[in-house]
Amino acid sequence: MLRLTNKVAIITGASSGIGCAAAKLFAAEGAQVVLAARRAPELGRVVEEIQSSGGRAVALAGDVTDEAYARALVDLSVERFGGLDVAFNNAGDLGPLLPIQDVSLSDWERALRVNLTSAFLAAKYQVPALVKRRGGSLVFTSTFVGYTAGMPNMAAYAASKSGLIGLTQALAAELGASGVRVNALLPGGTDTPLGKVVAHTPEMLAYVRGLHALKRIAQPEEIARAALYLASDESSFMTGSALLVDGGVSISRS
Fold first, then answer.
1. Looking at 147, 157, 207, 229, which residue is catalytic?
2. pLDDT tens digit string along 36-45?
């Protein structure tokens, strides 16, 4: 049986990487998906691929830091598919990869706006729609960086993504009685465009692989399957959690 039959899902950061993999997987599992990202041509190609496989998808390009865009995505899910059951808020940015003394205030604030404030804006409009359906799943993509491991030159990324865990816990307590579950997904190193920015040379890639207990990094589809678990009723008694899907990077010391 398909795990998201008749569910409506918003997925941000859906033009590539984890978001793209999740969009295809959620649609294959029966969801009607509303896809969000900045790049309209790439989003269009994902929609075409889903539709050619028999799925139902629509896309709206925009900036997740724009409050009007957050509202428009929910409006689109209601207008096209009748409501909202799942929101996978996955869009994010690495921010400045610099020593703290070299980080400008504008770059710091931009990282917080993309990674954390956008999640607040998304939830502000997604939650009423989820509650209206008398339940649902709200998922944020965080990271192990700043949660179980410190990484140099990633202060803005760590601070902004760690904030998502606090947001997750607060919303889980706030929304539990309404039946809405809220969880954070914490991937390890993953083969995505953002991941390639960090591991930008063969030597860096080998180093990052070696940090993980599994001695490799994830494919986006592996992280998408964890997102599907959180989105589906298979995680029906799970809320307020920070789910590590990190290949053992948090516990590896060898």
1. 157
2. 999 999 999 9
In a domain, 183, yes or no: yes
CB neighbour list of residue 140: distance below 8 Å, 6 or more residues apart = 89, 90, 119, 164, 167, 168, 182, 183, 184, 185
Q: Which domain holds residue 139?
A: 8-245
Q: Please report the pLDDT score of residue 204 as a whole number.
A: 86
Structural domains counted in the chain: 1
Express each pLDDT in 172-191 by its tens digit: 999 999 999 999 999 999 99
Helices (H) and strands (E) in the chain, counts: 9, 7
CA 140 to chain centre: 5
Q: Select from 119, 142, 11 the least CA-distant residue to 65.
A: 119
Q: Please, which contacts does 150-153 make with residues 24 or more away whose CB atoms are closer than 8 Å?
A: 152/99, 153/97, 153/98, 153/99
The pLDDT score that the predictor gives to residue 196 is: 83
pLDDT at 254 over 90: no
Whether 147 sits among the annotated catalytic residues: the reply is no
Nearest-angstrom CA–CA distance, 251 and 247: 9
Is 1 contained in some domain?
no
CATH classification at residue 171: 3.40.50.720
Both tokens of residue 123? 């939830």
pLDDT band at 69 (very low <50, low <70, confident <90, very high): very high
- The reported pTM is 0.96
